[in-house]
Amino acid sequence: xxxxxxxxxxxxxxxxxxxxxxxxxxxxxxxxxxxxxxxxxxxxxxxxxxxxxxxxxxxxxxxxxxxxxxxxxxxxxxxxxxxxxxxxxxxxxxxxxxxxxxxxxxxxxxxxxxxxxxxxxxxxxxxxxxxxxxxxxxxxxxxxxxxxxxxxxxxxxxxxxxxxxxxxxxxxxxxxxxxxxxxxxxxxxxxxxxxxxxxxxxxxxxxxxxxxxxxxxxxxxxxxxxxxxxxxxxxxxxxxxxxxxxxxxxxxxxxxxxxxxxxxxxxxxxxxxxxxxxxxxxxxxxxxxxxxxxxxxxxxxxxxxxxxxxxxxxxxxxxxxxxxxxxxxxxxxxxxxxxxxxxxxxxxxxxxxxxxxxxxxxxxxxxxxxxxxxxxxxxxxxxxxxxxxxxxxxxxxxxxxxxxxxx
Length: 407
Description:
Layout: H1 5-14, H2 30-107, H3 115-120, H4 126-193, H5 199-216, H6 224-235, E1 252-256, E2 265-268, E3 275-276, E4 282-289, H7 296-301, E5 310-318, E6 321-330, E7 332-333, E8 341-342, E9 349-350, E10 362-367, E11 391-392, E12 403-404
Antiparallel strand pairs: 1-2, 1-12, 2-10, 3-9, 4-5, 4-8, 5-6, 6-10, 7-9, 10-11
Helix pairs in contact: 2-4, 2-5
């Protein structure tokens, strides 16, 4: 179903103001684009420096982990050596104990319980008796001393074992902390590498815009959207003005509107590969894929990323200004090319689930500029409002009931 301009005006007034079609929004100039290139280049260099710093920190952490693992291995080897020494000492104590028991038997003169006394009192004279007593006492004292020394050694080894085990526990804890820090740094590096759109994309876009608007003959301080429209009008090549808008798929149902930071309308259909059409006549402004295949952005949005999203952007002439409609997550493109004039009945692609998408659907965004050579950057900055802040609620231009069976 199509809306006429009169109906459209009434509905647009009722829309939330932040989603209404912006009026007389100042676009950027060539000079601002050139300054923006410098700004984004500085950001990119800072980003690269952060990545290099992160990499250096990771390497330092890996070196520390390697050192800790070496200390742990050394402690484990020392514990094993001490345990072996303890076992050998215990065996020696057993041997000396048995030896002490056999000392008397070795020197005894007769068998029996009183062999020690019999040996001592079997002396021929007092001198012989003292000698015999001395021999027995010296041997038993020696064995007792050796056993005490061995017991002291066992005690020291056991205490050392406990110290080493505590140290090993401490080293393992430190290793876990370092691994956690490594994971945090690597996650930060991944986020730096995976942005939507990337800083390099924005640099390229700004450079392309400078080149394009200079080729049109726009002045350095002239509003580039007004310049583009003025030149198109004067050359007779202006896009026909749009009188109304249509739904981009012939039948389907609404999935999600502009809520919770969502930047457009999501819609789907029982035909998972339904053709997609322009919401109005216009020219193909861009055919591209975004960079959202994984990383922070997609994780935050809660999407499953299965490849770069296929996107078509169409430029329309509406009430003396250009507006841009974007068709996202296409499975494939139609027979189209950039710069081509298309009517509202031209197939520009087919609904799909490319990019950060949880299932086959079409995401429709509308704005009065586009960050790829369309008069603005992706985000707002000190120069002008960005694409994100110049979005237009599709519901202010097109009727979207819960479901529909025609455009």
